[in-house]
Amino acid sequence: MKEKLDHKNLxxxxxxxxxxxGQLIPEHLIKVMNEINDAYVEIKDSNKFQDELNYLxxxxxxxxxxxxxxxxxxxxxxxxxxxxxxxxxNHTGAHKINxxxxxxxxxxxxxxxxxxxxxxxxxxxxxxxxxxxxLGLECEIHMGEVDIKKEHPNVVKMKILGARVLPVSRGxxxxxxxVDSAFEELLxxxxxxxxxxxxxxxPHPFPMMVRDFQSIVGREARAQFLEMTxxxxxxxxxxxxxxxxxxxxFTAFLHDLDVKLIGVEPAxxxxxxxxxxxxxxxxxxxxxxxxxxxxxxxxxGEPLPVYSIASGLDYPGVGPQHCLLKDIKRAxxxxxxxxxxxxxxxxxxxxxxIIPALESSHAVAYAAKLAGTLGKxxxxxxxxxxxxxxDADFVAKKLKIH
Length: 402
Hints:
This protein is α/β, with parallel strands linked by helices. Helix content is about 45%, strand content about 20%.
């Protein structure tokens, strides 16, 4: 049974969503995180902060992002109607700009000298570099060497925007290793550096803050869907790595128990292989990067190497609120393979003229497959979290499109 929980009271004062979350970090870093939390609590409801953030959302980002009825895609699968929340139309091309502006404004309020971040697909890195350029802040982005080669267009954008991009060669040279590297940089001077975490992960208060900044996606979508159709969607679906775009969409519908929430994880080369990043599907309870969550880990509790064709999804942990939603069965977590993702990347491009990010293609692929099993009176809302400009060259090479 889905549990009706007062999600508005989460996390608790210690940063826990049920048993997940918290601050599993050294004492001196707890002090730093608590200072960030105190500053966030001080400004988040202030008229000055909200007015500035909402002004930037409207006149800089281009919010509200529209909802689009994907009629041709819906017809192709012959069942439920598929609607897309077009976060790909935001300035910088994804949902990431929503929390990057919030975190950059907070860093400036705290008089931090440098903003640090990790990035996988580069969307968080581009969005943060953009926000820092806008607000006059120094920006440093840590990115795995594998992802730098794969997402070259975003690397160039970050550098053009004035960010310093640090290649990370350790481990698998992907997202998890970039997070490790960024945390180490923070430790050099936590009083003057601000780590702008790129998802609903990490120690408290970041899972809460990023969720709050991303919740604009769900608030807009809920109102827009009611206006378009006269009712709420039957399903709300989003891809999930760390889980920021999914949490952004889900938050507005948590108390609407008739709206089924589905997070789509990367199954990579298949759940029967080791080449996936389906944390909630195949992981177990553990900890990573300063918080408790489900983790893909070995028998010693060390994070396993993970893989996805979508660089923004290959993370061995997941946001603590998603872990709670799984346990109380308020949300369902499924997976989609690389092949299914690539197929939908091309289908959405050619049926609707929308080139989606590989991350978002996971969510659309599952939604389309689900739609074929449902009636035409059923509505599915998908968060199209980003556009595929960054992936076009990679996909063209992989699929031999000349």
